[in-house]
Amino acid sequence: MHSQHDVQALSIDDNTVYEAVAALATDGHAAHTADVVHMTGLPEETVRRSLAFLTENGWLKARGGVYALGPHDWEVDYR
C-alpha cells in the first residue's frame, strides 16, 4: 500500500530527488529531469536513476518526461 511508504527508508539521493519534485509540485510547476538536476546539484544520471526508482515504486508518477507526486496520505508543505 502507498500509505506504507516511509521517506526515511529512501537513499539520500532518492530522498533529495523526491523532495525536489515535491517542492516543484507545491509551487505548481512540473518536474522535468533538468529542473530536478538543477535543484539538487546531483549528476543527471543519478537523478534519472532516482526518478526511475521512485516511479517504479509508486512514489512518483511519470507522464511524458514530467514527474509528479504519486498517491500519498500525508501533507507536503514547502512554504
In short:
The chain has 79 residues and is of the alpha+beta class.
Query: What oligomeric assembly is this protein in?
Result: single chain
- Biggest sheet: strands, sense, closure? 3 strands, antiparallel
| Helix count, DSSP H or I runs of 4 or more residues | 3
Q: Estimate the mean pLDDT confidence.
A: 84
Structural class: alpha+beta
InterPro entries: WH-like_DNA-bd_sf (IPR036388), WH_DNA-bd_sf (IPR036390)
Model description:
InterPro entries: WH-like_DNA-bd_sf (IPR036388), WH_DNA-bd_sf (IPR036390). With 79 residues, the protein is of the alpha+beta class. It has one domain: Winged helix-like DNA-binding domain superfamily/Winged helix DNA-binding domain (Arc Repressor Mutant, subunit A), CATH 1.10.10. 46% of the residues lie in helices and 13% in strands. The protein has helices at residues 12-26, 33-40, 44-56, and strands spanning 31-32, 60-63, 66-69. It has a three-stranded antiparallel beta sheet with strand order 1-3-2. Strand 2 (60-63) and strand 3 (66-69) form a beta hairpin. The longest helix has 15 residues, at 12-26.
